[in-house]
């Protein structure tokens, strides 16, 4: 189990990770979700003892990473697939890693086989595509046959084939009963891979729950209503104390399900042309939760509005 | 022991150490050949045959600095610290391997240079009779190894190849001689500078560099073996600072 308590990292004036506490359960795939710049990579580097926390601590099965003996046997990680010397062959890269944790050379060939790099094992890693580098990184993570695995944005920049491969691989690792902690900024990707979610924004914890719970909780369900007697219906709904908003010719109602709205309409003799429950997408849910914590907002929208206003006022 | 093997694999699975080693040895031998071919037999001294060591040393220090800065450049230092969280051991192992390689390069280069001079000018008096002669030839290994430690330490502190190489070369090759040219205090400071001490160990005092007879820069303040100890202490202090810094810093 990975457990973070009050984990904090400050770079000068920026607080990259802010009093973050969470735990990653054993034997499950836990997604680490947050927009770019939310502090996911920094947190992962602190888990691995690469960056020193400004405050708080993070432990793996109760021990700090730097206290682990032959750590590759306990924790495997792929934070950046490009952390390989470009002139060194894939096999040589894995050989020194294996040696450092007293793993036999035969293990190198096993993991190369596992990720399908046997045929290019003696080629220099600098010539690898991103997908191949990613596989080499996963091979390195698996060298010590660890129970805990960390992956930072493993599908980033991969082609669809690569993404499917990684996804299947994660499932396989989880099926083998390993603890997998994987970060992503794509909720849709996490919904396919992770059972548990830890969501952060601007270095702060937003939610820790199962993926299902998160989606249900975050996607606010609304109902779309269209009716020729819209003003009547609107008054009735307002009277019932639900939130409504206009959308084209209809209304979007939140806080009341479609059955209740239908009955309300019947009571007031309003004909309904449409009564459809709307389910927010995962991405919307994610945006809703993390929207306020995205670090780099664009001011494109504001600019566009300002420009439009100017055009109107000058009468063009 | 395991970590030494790790660093050995790392060093020899890239090409630059092989090239640098070959170039350093070739330079040392080539200068010996050049000097031996052109100097009259009775003027050819042991120090003359080792003239190329200065250039060999430059190449070896570049090799040593690159051994650590390329790790920062390509992020493999993070992979290293991930596999070996005890950064002190990891860095000491690397320093040890690089120093050993520097030692071997220097010994091959120095004896090749000495042998070549003997072959070209057999009539010259180039027998290894005195301790001073041995220091001059075999001593190169110790100086190269310690200079490699200095370069690794600076590389660890600076983390950028170009920056580390510039500092190592400008300091050892340009700054020290320039300091000796400072008015009044220059020579006194120069007598205590580490690379001047290293030179003192190699060439000693009495038979040293006749070109400096006309009031050139003074030789170092200590006797040859103390000069070596001084240079070793300098390397040790730098390495300690570098390791302590690497332990505190984010990788």
Automatic annotation (TrEMBL), chain A:
Annotated protein name in UniProt: ABC-2 type transport system ATP-binding protein
InterPro entries: AAA+_ATPase, ABC_transporter-like_ATP-bd, ABC_transporter-like_CS, P-loop_NTPase
Positions of transmembrane segments: none
Entry similarity comment: Belongs to the ABC transporter superfamily.
GO MF: ATP binding; ATP hydrolysis activity
Keyword hit for Cytoplasm: no
Pfam families given in the database record: ABC_tran
Organism: Herbihabitans rhizosphaerae
Keywords annotated in UniProt: ATP-binding, Nucleotide-binding, Transport
Coiled coil: none
CDD domains membership: ABC_BcrA_bacitracin_resist (cd03268)
Record has Repressor as a keyword: no
PROSITE patterns linked: ABC_TRANSPORTER_1, ABC_TRANSPORTER_2
Classification via SUPFAM superfamilies: P-loop containing nucleoside triphosphate hydrolases
Boundaries of every ABC transporter domain copy: 2-227
UniProtKB/TrEMBL annotation, chain B:
Membrane keyword on record: yes
Residue ranges of the TM segments: 18-39, 51-70, 91-117, 137-157, 164-182, 225-246
Entry keywords, A to Z: Membrane, Transmembrane, Transmembrane helix
Domain of life: Bacteria
Transcription regulation listed as a keyword: no
Pfam family, one: ABC2_membrane_4
Protein name: ABC-2 type transport system permease protein
Lineage start: Bacteria, Bacillati, Actinomycetota, Actinomycetes, Pseudonocardiales
């Amino acid at each position: 189990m990975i457990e973070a308590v009050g984990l904090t990292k400050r770079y000068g004036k920026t607080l990259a990770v802010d009093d973050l506490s969470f735990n990653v359960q054993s034997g499950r795939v836990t997604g680490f979700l947050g927009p770019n710049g939310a502090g996911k990579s920094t947190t992962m580097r602190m888990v691995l003892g690469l960056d020193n926390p400004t405050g708080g601590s993070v432990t793996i099965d109760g021990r700090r990473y730097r206290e682990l003996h032959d750590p590759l046997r306990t924790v495997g990680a792929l934070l950046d697939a490009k952390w390989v010397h470009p002139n060194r062959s894939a096999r040589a890269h894995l050989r020194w890693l294996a040696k450092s944790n007293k793993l036999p050379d035969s293990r190198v060939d096993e993991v190369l086989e596992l990720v399908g790099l046997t045929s290019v094992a003696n080629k220099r890693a600098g010539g690898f595509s991103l997908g191949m580098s990613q596989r080499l990184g996963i091979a390195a993570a698996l060298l010590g046959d660890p129970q805990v695995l960390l992956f930072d944005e493993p599908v980033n920049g991969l082609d669809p084939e690569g993404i499917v491969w990684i996804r299947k691989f994660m499932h396989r690792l989880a099926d083998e009963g390993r603890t997998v902690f994987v970060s992503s900024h794509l909720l849709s990707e996490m919904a396919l891979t992770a059972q548990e979610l830890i969501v952060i924004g601007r270095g702060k914890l937003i939610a820790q729950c199962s993926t299902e719970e998160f989606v249900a909780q975050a996607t606010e369900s609304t109902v779309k209503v269209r009716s020729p007697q819209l003003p009547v219906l609107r008054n009735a709904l307002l009277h019932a104390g639900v939130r409504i908003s206009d959308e084209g010719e209809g209304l979007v109602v939140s806080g009341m399900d479609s059955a209740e709205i239908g009955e309300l309409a019947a009571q007031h003799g309003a004909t309904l042309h449409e009564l459809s429950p709307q389910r927010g997408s995962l991405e919307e849910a994610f945006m809703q939760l993390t929207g306020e914590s995205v670090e780099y907002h664009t001011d494109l929208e504001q600019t566009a509005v300002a420009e439009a206003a100017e055009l109107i006022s000058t009468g063009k | 022991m395991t970590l030494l093997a790790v660093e050995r694999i790392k060093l020899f699975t890239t090409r630059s150490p092989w090239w640098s080693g070959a170039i350093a040895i070739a330079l040392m031998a080539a200068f010996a050949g050049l000097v031996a071919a052109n100097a009259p037999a009775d003027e050819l001294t042991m120090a003359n045959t080792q003239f190329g060591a200065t250039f060999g040393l430059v190449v070896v220090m570049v090799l040593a600095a690159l051994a650590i800065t390329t790790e920062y450049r390509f992020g493999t230092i993070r992979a290293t610290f991930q596999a070996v969280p005890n950064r002190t051991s990891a860095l000491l192992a690397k320093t040890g391997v690089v120093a050993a390689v520097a030692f071997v390069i220097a010994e091959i280069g120095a004896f090749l240079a000495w042998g070549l001079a003997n072959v070209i000018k057999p009539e010259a008096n180039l027998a290894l009779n005195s301790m001073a002669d041995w220091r001059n030839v075999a001593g190169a290994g110790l100086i190269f190894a310690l200079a490699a430690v200095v370069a690794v330490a600076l590389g660890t502190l600076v983390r950028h190849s170009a920056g580390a190489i510039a500092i190592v070369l400008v300091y050892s090759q340009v700054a020290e001689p320039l300091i000796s040219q400072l008015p009044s205090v220059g020579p006194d400071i120069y007598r205590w500078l580490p690379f001047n001490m290293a030179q003192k160990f190699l060439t000693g005092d009495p038979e040293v560099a006749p070109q400096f007879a006309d009031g050139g820069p003074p030789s170092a303040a200590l006797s040859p073996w103390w000069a070596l100890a001084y240079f070793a202490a300098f390397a040790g202090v730098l390495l300690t600072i570098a390791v302590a810094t690497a332990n505190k810093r984010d990788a």
